[in-house]
Structures are given as C-alpha cells and as structure tokens.
C-alpha cells in the first residue's frame, strides 16, 4: 500500500467516524419532527437536537452531592464506546481501513460496555428512580442481548463470517436469494432495535416523569455537558441500529473497498435516503403503537430470541433439502 | 501428546524446581503449624508462599518439559511426575493465582483471629494443587487431589464457631469425597486394560466404547462436582464464602481450574480419540451451569455467595468450550477443536484473574465494614476508592465487556460455536446453537449481576453506619487487586500473545493449533482466518480512548466548565434517606419475575390488611432451590432412613451378633463354592 492509498483509506475511515457523529442528532430530530406532523403538531425543526446539545454543553453542570467520580467519568465512556460501535458499522462503504478491528459480536459487546456504565451511573447517586431505571434496563438488556446474538448467528451463518463489512458485501453481491431466515432475522433485528433504543412500545423516549420510564429514569440526575454526551450517545445508538439493519438487509449502494470518490458519494446519498426512510418508518410505528406494560416486554423480546433460533435452525433445513 | 521422558541420569530442570517448591510449601505449612500461633507469623508465611509461587510460575513459563519417577508411594509403581505443555499452562495459572492470594493475605491475614487455623493449610493447599497438575500416575494424582481437598476443607473450617461454616464443612467434605471416589473409579476403568496406574500406560490402550463412555461420565461427575457443574455445585456457595477471602479466591479462582485440568487430562489426553456423542453431556452440563449459575447468583444478596454462584456460570462457559472441542475433534475438524479448547483454557485463565480480584475485593469490604450482606453496604466508592476501581475493572471483565479479557475468551467460544454447520450430526447441529443461546443469555445476565454487585455495594449512599465509616484497606491487598486487574486489561488488549502461549496445548491435545496471532497486523486476533471474523483488542481500546479524548476536548472547547454541587433532585420527590434506594433483592426483582417461575418456582404473595386496619401490607416471596429439593434432599432422606433402620443393629444381644457372624460365614462360603 502506498502512502497515498494509506492517506485515502484513513480519510475514508475518518469521514465515516465523523459522519455518524454529526448525522446522529439529525436522525433523532427527523423522527421527532415526523412524529409531531403525524400527530398534527407543528413540531420543532429537525435541527433542534443540535441546538439542544449545544445549549446543554454550555450550561453549568449540577452534580448531586452524593455523586462519585464514576458519575462524571461514565458519560465519556458511554459516549466513546457508542461512537466506536457506531463507526464500526458500514454506512456508505464496506471494507474501510479498520472495519475488521471489531466484528458484529464486538459491536454488540461495546454497546454492552456503554450500558453497563449507564446502569452503574444511575445507581451511583442513590435515588429510588435511579435504581428503578437501572434494574429495568438490565432486565431488558438481559433479554435483548441474547436475542441480538442469536440474530447475529443467523446472519453470520448465511454469510460465513461475523465481520460486518464482509456480511454486507456478501449480501450485496452474492446470490443469496430470498431466504426465510433473513426475513425472520429482519423482524428480530427491528424488535431488538426498538427495545435497545428505548422506543415505544418498550419505553417512551419523550417521558420525563412517569413510573414506567426506564432509560430516562437513569438520566434524571444528569445535567449540562454530561447530559449532552449521554443524549448524543443515545442518538448515535439509534443511528447505529438503523445503519446496521440497512447494511445487512438493504445493502444497496454501498461502495466497495477502495473505490473512488464518485462511488462514495453514491454511497453517502443512498445511506442518507435509507436513514430518512428508517426515521419515517420509526415515527409512523411509534405513532400507531401504544406502550406496553413492563412485564410484557419479556414476551416481546422473546419473539426476537425465538426468531433468531428459528432462523438458525431453518438454515439447516433449507441447506439439507 | 508429546511423550517426553528424561533418561535415568538426566534430572529435568522444571520438574525438579516444581517438586522442590511444592516440598518447600509443605514445609512452610508445617513450620506455620508449629510457630504460627500469633499474627506475627503471617507476613513471613504468606511472603514465603508468594515468593515460592512466583518461582514456580517463572519456571513453568520458561518451559521445559520433563518427567521423573520418585521412589515413594506404591512400591511397584513409584511416584511419576511429568510436565507437558498442558501442565505448564495450568502450573502458571495455579501459581499466579497462589502468588496473588498470598500477596493479598500479607495484609488481609493480619485480621485473622486464629492464624494457626489458616497459616499451615494455605501453603499446603497450593502445594497440593501443584502436585495434582504434575502427577503422572493415578495414585499420585489422587493422593494430591485428596490433600488438596483436605487442605481446603481445613481452610473452610477456619472459623469453626459459626454453625453455617460447620455445615459448609460437612457438605464440602461429603462432596469432595464423592468427587475423589468417582475419579478413583474412572482411573480404575482406565487402568484395567493394561493393569497399570501410570498415565503413560493408560494412554496406550484403546478402550472398548462402553468403557470409554463410562470413564467420560465418571470424569464429568468427579471433576464436574469439584469444579461446580450443576447440579453438583451445592457445596460451592456454602464453602467458598465460609473460608477466609484469600482462601475463597484460591478455591474459586484456582481449585476449580485444577478440576477443569483433571477433566482435560482424563478425557483429552488419557482417553484417546473422542466419539461425537461424548460432547453431548458436556455441552448440556456446560450450558445449564452457565445459564442457571448466573440466575442463582442474581438472586443472592450475600456478596461472597453471589461470587461463588458466579463461578458455576464461568465453569459452565469453560465446559461449553470443552464440549465443542470434543465435538469438533471427534469429527476430525481439528481447527475447530483447537479453537474451542483454546477458548476454554483462555477462559479458565481469565476466570482465575477476575474472580480472584472479586474475592479480594469482597474480603476488603468485609475487613472494612464487617459485612457480607449487600443490604448493609453502599457508597463504598467514596470511602474505598482504590478497592472500588479494581473491583469495577474485574466486574467489567467478568461481564465480558471489551476491551477486557473476559470478552476475548467468550468471543472465541462464540466463534467456535459459529463453526457448528461443519458438524455432520443433526443432534449437534441443534445442540450447539442452543448452547450458544444459553451462553449469550449467561453473558447478558452476568452483566446484570455485576451491575447489581458493584452498584449495591459500592455506589449509592451508605445503608448502615459500618458502611459509612469504612476505611480503605492496606497496601498489600490493594497491590494484589491492582496487579490482577492490570493483567485482566493486558490479556484483553494483547490476546494474541495469550493464544500463542496456549498453542502448544491445543497442538498436543487436538492435533492442531490456532493460527499464530502475534505477527498479524495491529495485533488483531482471528480464530480461523481474517475473513471469518477478527477482533483487535488493542485497536478497540485505543479507539475508545481516543474517542473519549475527542469528547473531552470537544467539551473543553465548546462547553462550560462550571460545576455546582447540589442536593439530589430525584424528580422533585422529598428525599426519604438511604433506605429508599433499591435493595439487592429489589434490583433483581424484574429478572426474578421473568425467569423465576421457571427456574425457582418463585411466587409472590401480597397480604393486604383489611380496610380500616393500619397495619402495613406485606409482600412475601417464595423461592425453591430445585437442586436441593429434588436431588440432595431425597438422597439425604434415603440415607437417614437406612441409617435409622440399621441403627437397631447397635442394640442387639450377643446371641444375635454371634448368629449374624455365623450367617455371614455361611454366606461367604456359599458364594465361594458357587463361584468356583
């Protein structure tokens, strides 16, 4: 690899990292705006999340008296782990310079690191709401994570690798055909994405004072720049799941490794279009769905787990025939 | 299966060192028995133990296989000892764990009430584990195995005044005897074909299929009950918490690995080529232990019992790896077998590291507050910041979070599971993904469990005055915790070096090894080849660090620096004090509601007072330990019933006894006649 190639590869990788960082609040803003329009409200503009983040960053941070160092360090780790996980998912191109440094299992685990610290930070202050959010979050995660891993298994068995970039290339260029397993995996992925991102019907992202809240209950004591980092990480996580589903199930327009600028431009345009569709679909789904009781969530996530197992087993049946 | 045997005049270096060190440890134990009456004896004994362990560790790491026959033991057999690569890796594991525990104990042991009840047995325990690992005949092996059991039993009984500990001691003794008995039978079957108890002779013989199956079951039961596989785990959550914390760390972190070693030695080395169905019981046992162990742990509110149950989970993960290695090996898929075996041994090594730190931390909490009940702790991160940091790293590592070491070994296990389509048997094609689901469940629940363990003990506000007045522990304890936590990070960031170190073990036992990792670009690891999946702990660690720094720089540039300390907000509710925090049981309640009805037959009853009555309402939870109720209790009841019946024999007249003797004689003569 010549120095020039290296620089180009690094530039593409860096572009991906900062693209997801900067685009994340836009997706959140889009979902909120579409949702407001569907509810016949005018709604804030799609760039409102940027303004919120900037405002939060500039505000004084209020720390509870009982907070320890963990409370202040956690937002940075949550932010960075989520960012790295998001940057490892192919958005506009596959086969980027560092795309092999973590596979799909590592991405899931990185999100687990972020959640681990989030749940700990919620317990740090010593309030009842923090404990409530934390204990519910780990319950949901303890079901969502195995479901996600089973779905990863299904996809990885079809593509013969856990490397996300390679999976996307495989599904893009190989003749995979219509597979029942993939359809089951898609539904499962969507269920897990909804649960992991604290969306309706599992959790309500717009609530701030409800006994049913999960994710928000963990953030209650956060303010200022710390809250900004966590909110930004949450926006990235939503973008990550949307990109993940897009690159596995709808890998059209992804630029292959080492392609030219024109390819990359097509890739970015295709990715933006996919994200817009995903955002609209999520808003529509949230508008027509009601939140479910907390103890019905296990059943909901159980569907995803079973879909993952079924998808894996069906693969053998279809191969055996 | 390298068969390195030194000739008569050549004294193999490493074996000699290990033997000499084990003898030195035993002597140290004896010296402590004589002079260890006061706590002044503590530092020299533990310091000496740590130094000897480090020496063995260095010798084992330096390598050098060799064998030796000592003229002791059975006259026609002698005592065979031998170090091969498997023994070398496990010697390192045992002695690293031993050195860490001894270092910790230099500080922790000062608080011991009766040092003489602990000091003699601690070095002897480590010496016994070393001898198990280097034993090369069944007699030496079982002798060392029993020494290991008895020494650890003595440590469990160190505080014999509490009734709970005495019960733990009895249960442990029974289970240890049972485990030794099954292993004795396993060796008996193995020795039958050549009539020799030396391992070298056992390796020669091809066994008939049913006998090999018998040995496998006996080894699984014998080693599994020592390691803590379900449902033979019952002694573990009783005995591990009863021992002093440095001994708990040894029992949980190291002794269970010696049991894993015994299983690997018997099944992979002595038993010869595997049949595919051998893997099925191992996979089932591993999967069940992994998922149920962590669920039991989640329901605990005693910190050390929680950790002990967690050992069951990790042993389950190790046995999943071993089962996979058997399945792949039996089908000639050597690469997969090497991968799965490496994953299992890697996890055994990792578990020794983080479980030791966790037990050290639990001991530190016990020293500082006198409490093991999580309901009486809280807020310790303010009072014991250093212990909290080391404990947090270990919690993250055991929860399989990148970039720490626990993630790497579980990732390798997942990669091995993903190779299952290559297996021809349908039973395995279905059993292996099911085990994958159980492993994924166990990993996710482990994270929940350690959020609970760390969050309730160290975070929040202190729930009692003991917790509020806790003091940071001594330097030795902290040093032990930090060294192991650092190794956790190093092994997670440079996993390739560990995998390469284990490659000869896989080569010897499965006939293949994982591809060499250390010369890959950016120190990434790839189990089969890079196209199938790779992971780079170093890069992930660096990326996360750089991303955090970018975030910090961003905040520094754009954001405000002002910080104000204020009272809790808590949604504006008036603060009801620390008692309004979530308790350990409350934290696990959502998970108990999801899994409890299935696993524990749990139920909740709410008792409301009649209208107008001002008595408080009550919520009662009922849980059942099914292993105790359906396995141990019936066996105990049956034994007691038989004992009751036989008890009448004690109160007979001399006439009756004489007639019994006569009848027995007639019976024996009759049997002899018929047999001839």
Explain what this protein looks like in three dimensions.
The complex is a heterodimer of chains A (321) and B (676). The model of chain A has no long low-confidence stretch (mean pLDDT 89). Chain A has one domain. Chain A has 321 residues and is mainly α. Chain A has eleven helices and one strand; from the N terminus they run H-H-E-H-H-H-H-H-H-H-H-H. With 676 residues, chain B is mostly helical. Among the domains of chain B are: 1-204 and 239-251, no CATH class; 584-622, no CATH class; 626-675. Chain B has a two-stranded antiparallel ribbon. A two-stranded antiparallel ribbon of chain B has the order 4-5. In chain B, a hairpin with an 8-residue loop joins strand 1 (66-70) and strand 2 (79-83). The interface between A and B is large, with 86 and 89 residues.
Mean pLDDT rating of chain B: 89
**Helicity range of the residues of chain B?**
55-70%
Number of domains of chain A: 1
Poorly predicted residue ranges of chain B: 1-9
Written as H for each helix and E for each strand, in order along the chain, the element string of chain B is HHEEHHHHHHHHHHHHHHHHHHHEHEEHH
**How many E-type strands of chain A?**
1
The outline of chain B comes out as globular
Largest sheet of chain B: 2 strands, antiparallel
- Largest interface, C-beta closer than 8 angstroms, per-chain residues: A-B, 86 and 89 residues
The Rg value of chain B, from CA coordinates, equals 27 Å
Radius of gyration of chain A: 20 Å
**Approximately how much beta-strand content do the residues of chain A carry?**
under 5%
Through-space gap between termini of chain A: 45 Å
Task: Outline the secondary-structure elements.
The complex is a heterodimer of chains A (321) and B (676).
Chain A: H1 3-38, H2 48-58, E1 61-64, H3 69-88, H4 104-124, H5 128-159, H6 164-173, H7 180-196, H8 215-219, H9 224-249, H10 261-288, H11 297-320
Helix pairs in contact in A: 1-3, 1-9, 1-10, 2-9, 3-4, 3-9, 4-5, 5-6, 5-7, 5-11, 7-9, 7-11, 9-10
Chain B: H1 13-35, H2 42-62, E1 66-70, E2 79-83, H3 85-108, H4 121-134, H5 138-156, H6 163-192, H7 199-204, H8 209-227, H9 236-242, H10 245-270, H11 279-298, H12 303-330, H13 334-369, H14 380-383, H15 385-398, H16 405-417, H17 426-458, H18 465-468, H19 475-493, H20 495-510, H21 537-558, E3 563-566, H22 584-599, E4 603-607, E5 618-622, H23 626-647, H24 654-675
Antiparallel strand pairs in B: 1-2, 4-5
């Amino acid at each position: 690899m010549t120095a020039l190639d290296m620089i180009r590869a690094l530039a593409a990788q860096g572009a991906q990292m900062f693209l997801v960082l900067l685009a994340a609040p836009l997706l959140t803003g889009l979902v909120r705006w579409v949702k407001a329009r569907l509810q016949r409200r005018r709604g804030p503009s799609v760039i409102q999340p940027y303004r919120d983040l900037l405002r939060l960053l500039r505000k004084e941070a209020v720390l509870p008296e009982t907070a320890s160092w963990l409370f202040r360090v956690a937002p940075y780790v949550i932010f960075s782990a989520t960012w790295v996980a998001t940057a490892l998912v192919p958005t506009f191109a596959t086969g980027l310079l560092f795309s092999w440094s973590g596979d799909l299992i590592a991405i899931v685990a990185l999100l687990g690191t972020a959640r681990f610290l989030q749940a700990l930070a919620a317990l740090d202050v010593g309030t009842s709401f923090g404990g409530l959010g934390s204990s519910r979050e780990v319950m949901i995660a303890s079901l969502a994570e195995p479901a996600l891993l089973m779905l990863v298994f299904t996809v990885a068995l079809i593509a013969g690798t856990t490397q996300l970039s390679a999976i996307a290339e495989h599904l893009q260029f190989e003749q995979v055909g219509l597979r029942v397993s993939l359809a089951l995996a898609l539904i499962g992925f969507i269920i897990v994405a909804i649960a992991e991102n604290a969306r309706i019907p599992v959790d309500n992202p717009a609530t701030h004072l409800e006994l049913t809240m999960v994710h928000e209950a963990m953030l209650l004591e956060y303010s200022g720049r710390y809250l900004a980092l966590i909110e930004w990480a949450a926006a990235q996580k939503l973008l990550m799941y949307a990109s993940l589903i897009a690159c596995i199930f709808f890998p059209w327009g992804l630029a292959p490794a080492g392609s030219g600028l024109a390819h990359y431009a097509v890739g970015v345009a295709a990715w933006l279009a996919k994200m817009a569709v995903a955002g609209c679909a999520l808003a529509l789904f949230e508008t027509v769905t009601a939140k479910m009781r907390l103890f019905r969530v296990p059943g909901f996530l159980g569907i995803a787990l079973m879909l993952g197992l079924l998808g894996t087993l069906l693969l053998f049946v279809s191969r055996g025939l | 299966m390298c068969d390195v045997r030194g000739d008569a005049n050549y004294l193999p270096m490493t074996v000699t060192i290990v033997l000499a060190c084990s003898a030195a440890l035993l002597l140290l134990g004896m010296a402590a028995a004589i002079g260890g009456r006061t706590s002044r004896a503590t530092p020299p004994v533990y310091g000496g133990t740590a130094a000897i362990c480090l020496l063995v560790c260095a010798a084992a790491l330096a390598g050098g296989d060799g064998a030796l026959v000592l003229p002791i033991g059975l006259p026609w057999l002698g005592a065979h000892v031998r170090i091969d690569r498997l023994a070398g890796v496990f010697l390192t594991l045992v002695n690293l764990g031993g050195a860490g525990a001894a270092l910790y104990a230099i500080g922790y042991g000062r608080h011991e009430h009766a040092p003489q009840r602990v000091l003699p047995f601690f070095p002897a325990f480590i010496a016994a584990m070393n001898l198990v690992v280097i034993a090369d005949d069944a007699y030496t092996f079982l002798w060392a195995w029993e020494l290991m059991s008895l020494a650890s039993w003595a440590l469990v009984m160190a505080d014999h005044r509490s009734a709970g500990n005495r019960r733990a001691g009895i249960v442990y003794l029974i289970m240890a005897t049972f485990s030794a008995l099954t292993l004795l039978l396993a060796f008996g079957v193995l020795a039958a074909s050549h009539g020799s108890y030396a391992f070298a002779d056992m390796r020669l013989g091809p066994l008939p299929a049913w006998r090999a199956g018998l040995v496998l079951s006996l080894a699984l039961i014998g080693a599994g009950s020592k390691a803590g596989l379900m449902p033979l785990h019952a002694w573990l959550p009783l005995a591990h918490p009863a021992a002093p914390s440095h001994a708990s760390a040894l029992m949980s972190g190291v002794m269970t690995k010696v049991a894993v070693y015994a299983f690997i030695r018997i099944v992979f080395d002595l038993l010869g080529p595997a049949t595919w169905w051998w893997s099925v019981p191992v996979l089932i046992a591993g999967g069940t232990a992994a998922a149920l162990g962590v669920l039991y742990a989640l329901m605990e509110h005693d910190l050390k019992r929680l950790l002990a149950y967690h050992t069951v989970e990790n042993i389950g993960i190790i046995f999943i790896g071993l089962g996979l290695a058997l399945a792949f090996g039996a089908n000639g898929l050597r690469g997969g077998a090497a991968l799965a075996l490496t994953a299992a041994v890697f996890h055994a090594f990792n578990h020794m590291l983080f479980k030791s730190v966790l037990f050290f931390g639990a001991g530190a909490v016990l020293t500082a507050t006198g409490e093991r009940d999580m309901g009486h702790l809280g807020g310790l991160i303010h009072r014991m910041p250093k212990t909290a940091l080391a404990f947090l790293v270990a919690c993250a590592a055991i929860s399989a979070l990148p970039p720490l070491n626990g993630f790497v070994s579980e990732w390798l296990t997942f990669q091995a599971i993903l190779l299952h389509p290559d297996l021809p048997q349908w039973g395995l094609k279905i059993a292996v993904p099911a085990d994958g689901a159980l492993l994924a469940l166990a990993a996710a629940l482990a994270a929940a469990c350690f959020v609970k363990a760390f969050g309730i003990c160290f975070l929040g506000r202190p729930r009692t005055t003991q917790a509020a007045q806790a003091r940071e522990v001594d330097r030795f304890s902290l040093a032990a915790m930090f060294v192991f936590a650092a190794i956790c990070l190093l092994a997670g960031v440079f996993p390739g070096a560990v995998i390469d170190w284990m490659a000869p073990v896989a080569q010897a036992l499965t006939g293949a090894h994982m591809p060499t990792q250390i010369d890959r670009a950016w120190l990434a690891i790839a189990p089969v080849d890079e196209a199938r999946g790779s992971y780079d702990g170093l890069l992930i660690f660096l990326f996360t660090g750089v991303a955090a720094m970018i975030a910090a720089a961003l905040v520094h540039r754009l954001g405000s620096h002002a910080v104000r300390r204020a009272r809790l907000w808590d949604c504006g509710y008036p603060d009801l004090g620390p008692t309004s925090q979530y308790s350990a049981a409350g934290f696990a309640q959502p998970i108990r509601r999801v899994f409890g009805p299935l696993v524990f037959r749990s139920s909740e009853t709410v008792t409301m007072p009649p209208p107008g009555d001002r008595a408080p309402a009550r919520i009662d939870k009922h849980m059942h330990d099914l292993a105790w109720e359906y396995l141990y209790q019936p066996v105990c009841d049956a034994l007691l019933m038989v004992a009751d019946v036989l008890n009448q024999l004690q109160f007979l007249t001399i006439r009756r006894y004489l007639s019994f003797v006569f009848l027995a004689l007639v019976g024996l003569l009759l049997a002899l006649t018929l047999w001839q």
